[in-house]
Amino acid sequence: MPSNIVDPSITELLLVIVSLLGLCVLFLAEITNATSGYDTTIGSLGQLLGSLIAVGALLILLVRRRVGAGK
Fold first, then answer.
1. Which of 16, 52, 70, 71 has an alpha carbon 20 to 30 Å from 30's alpha carbon atom?
2. Cα 2 to Cα 41: distance, rounded to the nearest angstrom
């Protein structure tokens, strides 16, 4: 009898961790901008980098899931 339990791979778990770390970078950059008066480029670059990391990891995860579901 087959079960419906999802068994995520190590790569998928690592991609989730990377996306969460990207969100942490994004939030820390937002805090940096807020405390310095929204006038630093470091905070803006941190926001850009954090959002790119988070979105990129989630896109890779979704593409892997879609390709894996087609097997």
1. 16
2. 54
Q: Which two tokens stand for residue 42?
A: 């470091």
Global model pTM greater than 0.85: no
CA-closest candidate to residue 28, choices 45, 14, 12, 13: 45
Flag whether 61 is in a domain: yes
Q: Is residue 2 part of a domain?
A: no
**pLDDT tens for each residue of 21-56:** 888 888 888 888 888 887 778 888 888 888 888 888
**DSSP state at residue 1:** -
List the domain range (segments joined by +) for residue 56: 10-69
pLDDT beyond 80 at 3: no
Burial of 39 (0-12, 13-18, 19+ CB in 10 A): exposed
